[in-house]
Amino acid sequence: MSWRDGARAGFLTGLILFAGCGFHPLYGSQTVAVPASLEKSLASIRVNRMPDRQGQIMTNQLTDALNPHALTVEALYRLDVKLLVNLQNYDIRPDSTTGRSETTASATWSLIRLSDNAPLISGRSKALAGHDISTQEYANVSSGAADSDHAIAEVADDIEARLVIYFQDAAQS
User: Fold this and answer.
1) What average pLDDT does the structure give for the chain?
2) CATH code, 41
């Protein structure tokens, strides 16, 4: 076996290991694959409205994720979400200015069956997004808003994934 064959075998082994480690491309669709058999179940979840702009973003993210095809189905479940978004500046520079800003979005959520108000599943989801502080104020404001939106979207994706798993398990039982 030549060194080329060994390098090729090592490269292929690395690719196989990479495939199972949770590696995913930075760009592209990150949506959860929802089996067609679960589309109506997920579409029957009504997301309770949340206050303020960040709550509206979360409500829209979840509503679009759970019913992407805008199916008209009877509401069987209610999703209650309490969202908390915090901004923290840290990494103080020698000139006493902030060097980094991070936004943390955390949500406590529960899925309620409407027929008897029984809680079916609940959980907590959390995401973090941040950026380095620039000397340009517009860049900081824009990056801060994007951080908030990204963190909220990540929390919404996590909630959707957990609901998909719940309904898949329920369908198999």
Assistant:
1) 82
2) 3.30.160.150
